[in-house]
What we know:
The chain is of the alpha+beta class. Among the domains are: 148-309, no CATH class; 439-507, no CATH class; 509-626, Sandwich (Immunoglobulin-like), CATH 2.60.40.10. The chain is 45% helix and 17% strand. It has 18 helices and 18 strands. The protein has helices at residues 3-8, 11-40, 44-69, 85-95, 106-142, 150-162, 196-199, 202-217, 220-233, 238-262, 266-277, 295-303, 314-334, 348-357, 364-372, 376-390, 400-415, 428-436; strands spanning 145-147, 170-174, 181-183, 189-193, 441-445, 450-452, 461-463, 467-475, 479-487, 496-497, 517-520, 529-532, 538-543, 551-559, 564-572, 589-593, 601-611, 617-626. A 4-stranded mixed β-sheet has the order 1-2-4-3, with helices on both faces. Strands 5-8-9-10 form a 4-stranded antiparallel β-sheet, covered by helices on one side. Helix 8 packs across helix 10 (238-262) and helix 11 (266-277) runs antiparallel to helix 12 (295-303). The protein is elongated.
Amino acid sequence: MTLLEQWAQTPAAKTLGWTLVHTLWQGAAIALALAAALWLLKSSRARYAAACATLLAVLAGFGLTFALLLPPAPLSGVTIRTPFFDPLAESYQTTHPAAWEGSAGKVADAVLPWLGPCWLLGIAVFHLRMLAGWRQARRLRDAGVCGAPAGWQRRLDGLRERIRLARPVALLESCLAETPVVIGHLRPVILTPIGLLAGMPAAQVEAILLHELAHVRRHDYLVNLLQACAESLLFYHPAAWWISGVIRQEREHCCDDFAAAVHPNRREYAEALVALEQSRCAASNAAPAASGGSLVKRVRRLIGPPHRPRLALTPALSLAVLTIAGVAVVAAWQAAPGGEATQPPLPAPYQRWLDEEVAFIIAPDERNAFRKLTGDAERDRFIEQFWERRDPTAGTPENEFRTEHYRRLGYADQRFLVPSGAAGRKTDRGRAYILWGPPDEIESHPAGVRYRRPPEQGGGWTETFPFEQWRYRWLEGVGADVILEFVDSTGTGDYRAVIDPLVKEVKPYAPGQFGGDVFYSTEPGARVAVEVMPDRRILVSAPIDFDAVEYLITGTVRSRDGRVEAVLERRVSLCRASPNQFGCLTQPLLQTYAQHRLSAGSYVFEVVVKDLSGPARKDYAINFRVN
């Protein structure tokens, strides 16, 4: 597997892809706001500030969106007891596809992770472009230059003192520059073409120099470099390029207004701009120059009556980008796996193979492809290729994977058969056995037991329902030392996988039963409780008091100074909402233990319980203290 393929499988890859998509409509909306602001603002300084703030807003939106979409990494402060339930939930998708309709489309899942590498490649290309422009500017500064006549350097110093510019500015003549240009930030230099100082009237030259000094006074060289960096990051966004163009245009207008305010004759300054345009080159954006921007518009601003600027097609372009991006986002989020509900039923043997024999190992795309086949010959060939793809020793007479799979099916049906009649392969223990084989260790209590809790679960003795704990030293794609817990809380022999270890206790947990200090949320309705145990570990109880198919519970423990001490994120379901789902909660209460002892001090625990398929959510905040 290549590094790019490894990257595409990380949460950050998909998050970055969604961020790039969301930035399209966000940037378009921000550009529309700027278009409205430019229609109202008349001052070039205000318009320039608005354009700069807009470009920063697009960048900030990018960073904020990425931070909000990136799944928080669980810290060491909170135990997530059963991270292996996500793969089991995926196996449930194959047997209950209707329950998973409305999830993100497969096309989006496949494409989004690869947007990030393309974006990084584009950034590299544009940074190389920016570096080439910077080197071109340095070449102008160092090659083919000579000092300007002493008289003109003194005039420049006089103009600099006149506008109260403390930094020294050198004046050089260049055989490469075709128009006056400012290069450098710490030690700025104004380059003028050879013959310009002698060939133009002195008053016009002073007006041009005032324009260049305005660039120095406003730190435009540095701002221009930062703007080029922003363009590189947002190179894929048309609205960003339009905003950047507005910034460059208004920057020149600001310098024009400054020079015209200091120079006694605005028309003479306008004539100087016209003279410069006659020798204008297709200059690089690496350095600000007096000839930048549209000459006609700049001269009209200087000598014509005030007028409201035209925005051309910019609002329409932004609106089009906003519409296209919005439709793409909605389509991606609303896309369903599709196709299965409308497919005709399969012949009984093939339906049995799909729903009973390979239900837990067939991938969703394989399942969809199989259902679309129209002939028995095609289906037989598909089944043959299905097992061939999984054969660890291709070319040998025996397919060890298929042999082991059917052995597990037979063992599960025989060993985990529920007295009520449910097939063993359809029980939670049967599914786990089929997926991962026999566990390395089993702790079984078939008649219940007086049970001593581990220290990380609060310690002490309790009475339990019949339960089993399966330990796997290693599960591929899950991790090391994985513990699955199954509880028979009904006494029928139907052991259900549980997320919360307290479920197996006959007496439900009540806050305070471990002798610790209990703190509650103050919001109306069901309350979240934090019990601070004597050893400074905490036990959190989060009730679920609204119906949903699946919940997302996110919790953060912060110290009073805002430092994050622990993060919890878990997707759970209630069995009453999804009675057939593997590992759902059997009671509307989620408990989680802290793994480490908190230092003495004050903390706040913030909890959000959300309905993953709807708008319902509850927010809780608990202030507590550890002595």
